[in-house]
Amino acid sequence: RAKSTSFIGLGRMGSEMAYNLFSKEYTQSPESNFVVCDALPESAKAFQDNFLSQFPGANLQVVDTPVQATVASKTIITMLPSSPHVKQVYSESVIPALKGLPSQDITQTLCIDSTTLDVDVARAVASELNSLGAQMVDAPVSGGVAGAKAGTLAFLVGGTEQSFKLSQPILAQMGQRIIHCGPSGAGLGAKICNNLILGVQQIVVGEGMLLGQKLGLDPAVLASVINSSTGGCWASSVNNPVPGALPEKSPPCERDYQGGFVTALMLKDMGLATEIARKQNSALPLGELAEAIYAKSIQEQPELATRDFSAVYKYLRAQNVS
Ligand code: NAD
């Protein structure tokens, strides 16, 4: 477990993040070892082929299981779909594998989970790792696949001061803003609140843009008014859902909503917000409605699940046919 980093979960985000991290670490220390693992072996192999084509001398190994990835490295990074996957990988693989290692190896272990998942699940995993003597941070990201590729992600970090300091230089290889939000779970709390607001805004921007068109307004004129007025927000000024509203910025709607942050993930994040709010007795009347609208949009137009979440506009438009 000398100088080695393991990355588990090489999907749309993880593959870009691991590429940035490993390429920078390799350039700084060519003797570094890198380990990758994914439930789909072809994803890990594709990553390896791509990385080695750029850095032929790198020590990059594909392993079949998260247990092997844990035993191989002191730094373990996970980027998985959601709570059940994180629970499974840590409870069934990372934690049991660590328990089999000498105690000095356990205390030198740092786990960084960048998945967006339930705060309580993340806290439980971190607490179990901490009780063994290992460090863990929750470090969900903002910035999407484009930010992951460009290395400009924002990391919202939850954990102790010590674990934050250990994770900071690693996260800095994959992102631009590394924010310590507070103790374990705080990074996820910040991420979930942000996406709750974003999810609601994207729907209401679609509603306003639709109503404006019914009133005879040109979408580009309306978008420019909103974006220089008090209704402007990221959902209107960058991710405007109406083709022709922001032609110069080329939002996903210009490609039939391909790419971007898919509706299924937004629905998952709205669900995380409404679930934690129920546990906290915190009222989310708009959040609950927005969650139901995203769910209904996928139910009625299943192809929207894998389109950018601004495609909720297509669903709203279908409600407005007359
Ligand atoms: P993804 O589904 O593309 O990737 C997840 C990867 O994890 C897949 O390759 C899958 O095979 C792998 N995986 C699943 N279970 C596994 C297991 N048990 N062991 C090993 N590998 C396993 O998802 P993504 O788009 O990369 O998103 C990852 C996380 O980042 C999610 O929590 C998402 O909400 C969050 N996020 C995504 C975006 C985005 O724009 N895609 C933006 C911000 C945050």
UniProtKB/TrEMBL annotation:
<dbReference type="InterPro" id="IPR008927">
    <property type="entry name" value="6-PGluconate_DH-like_C_sf"/>
</dbReference>
<dbReference type="GO" id="GO:0050661">
    <property type="term" value="F:NADP binding"/>
</dbReference>
<dbReference type="InterPro" id="IPR013328">
    <property type="entry name" value="6PGD_dom2"/>
</dbReference>
<dbReference type="Pfam" id="PF03446">
    <property type="entry name" value="NAD_binding_2"/>
</dbReference>
<protein>
    <recommendedName>
        <fullName>3-hydroxyisobutyrate dehydrogenase</fullName>
        <ecNumber>1.1.1.31</ecNumber>
    </recommendedName>
</protein>
<dbReference type="GO" id="GO:0008442">
    <property type="term" value="F:3-hydroxyisobutyrate dehydrogenase activity"/>
</dbReference>
<dbReference type="Pfam" id="PF14833">
    <property type="entry name" value="NAD_binding_11"/>
</dbReference>
<feature type="active site">
    <location>
        <position position="191"/>
    </location>
</feature>
<dbReference type="GO" id="GO:0005739">
    <property type="term" value="C:mitochondrion"/>
</dbReference>
<dbReference type="GO" id="GO:0051287">
    <property type="term" value="F:NAD binding"/>
</dbReference>
<comment type="similarity">
    <text>Belongs to the HIBADH-related family. 3-hydroxyisobutyrate dehydrogenase subfamily.</text>
</comment>
<keyword id="KW-0560">Oxidoreductase</keyword>
<dbReference type="GO" id="GO:0006574">
    <property type="term" value="P:L-valine catabolic process"/>
</dbReference>
<feature type="domain" description="3-hydroxyisobutyrate dehydrogenase-like NAD-binding">
    <location>
        <begin position="185"/>
        <end position="316"/>
    </location>
</feature>
<dbReference type="InterPro" id="IPR006115">
    <property type="entry name" value="6PGDH_NADP-bd"/>
</dbReference>
<keyword id="KW-0101">Branched-chain amino acid catabolism</keyword>
<dbReference type="InterPro" id="IPR002204">
    <property type="entry name" value="3-OH-isobutyrate_DH-rel_CS"/>
</dbReference>
<dbReference type="InterPro" id="IPR036291">
    <property type="entry name" value="NAD(P)-bd_dom_sf"/>
</dbReference>
<feature type="domain" description="6-phosphogluconate dehydrogenase NADP-binding">
    <location>
        <begin position="6"/>
        <end position="182"/>
    </location>
</feature>
<dbReference type="InterPro" id="IPR029154">
    <property type="entry name" value="HIBADH-like_NADP-bd"/>
</dbReference>
<dbReference type="InterPro" id="IPR015815">
    <property type="entry name" value="HIBADH-related"/>
</dbReference>
<dbReference type="InterPro" id="IPR011548">
    <property type="entry name" value="HIBADH"/>
</dbReference>
<comment type="pathway">
    <text>Amino-acid degradation; L-valine degradation.</text>
</comment>
<keyword id="KW-0520">NAD</keyword>
